Task: structure prediction
Amino acid sequence: MPERALADAFTAPVVIASVEVPTDQMSTFSAFTDAGVYSRWLGVPVRIDDGDFSCTLEWGTEVRGRYELVAAPRLLVMRWDFDDGKEPEPGSELTAYLQVFPVPAGSRVEVHQLVDTAQQAEFMEGAWTLVLGRLKAGIVEALDAGADAAGRQPRAKRRPT
Result:
């Protein structure tokens, strides 16, 4: 088929991280789009302003990005970056697709993070399992608007040796 020669295609690696939480699909989706709820379960202040988001984790890493597509209650497409002065080198935006699916016991959150290298994939596996683990541990309390927004204490970043 001659049309195939007119386009390019390539295969890129992706990290897939997921978690099930005991909250309905819309509430779970709002945990990523409502700055107050997001701050409570993540444990650090999160700013969301007209699609731009940012936070500084307790060890000093700054995370910032933009929601490119918000299709409630199912899909968030984000381009994001981080800066912690360490590897992997900051400065290149990453693309992630976060989906929220209803399941009998609540919701399943699944993130598809595009990566360029095996080293980046390993880092993203750790990053997303940390984020989704915090979501699972804190979402129920975070959805209570009267709950304390107890922040995490600053700490040094730990790196595997």
